[in-house]
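If I may wish for something, please sit down with the protein I am sending here and say whether C-alpha cells and residues agree:
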Amino acid sequence: MSIPGGEEMELGKQIKKHRQEVQLSQEKLADRVYVSRQTISNWENDKSYPDVNSLVLLSEIFQISLDNLIKGDIEVMKDVIQKEEIVAFSEGKLLDDIQKQRGTGKRPYQKIFLRRLLYQSRMQNHG
C-alpha cells in the first residue's frame, strides 16, 4: 500500500513471508484467522489491512511478536501523520482543524488501528 510521500507499507509482505515459512496456504491461514481466502490475498497484496484481532491471531500463528509483525507499518503511519500535520501547519491550519480532518479522512481505520496498537504496546511494556 503506497502512502503519500512515497513510503510503502510492509505488512502484506510480512504476512506472505511468514505464511510461507509456516507452510500454510492462503485458505488454511484464512480458516485459522476466521476470514476468507480472498481477505488473506487482499492483505498480502496491500489492498486491505487486517483488524487488530486478526493481527493478534496472525502473530500467534506465526509465533512472532505483534511488534515484529507490524513495527515497520507503525513507524510509517507515525511518519505520515507527522508529515500531514507539518503540511497543514504550513498552510495555516489550526491543530483542531487537522484533527477533525484526520478523523474524517479516507482511512480513519488507520487512526483507530494506530491508537489501539500504541495502547497495547504501552500496556505490554508497563504490565
Remarks:
- Residues 19 and 54 are 14 Å apart (CA to CA).
- The chain has one domain: 11-126.
- The first helix runs from residue 11 to 21.
- DSSP finds seven helices and no strands in the chain.
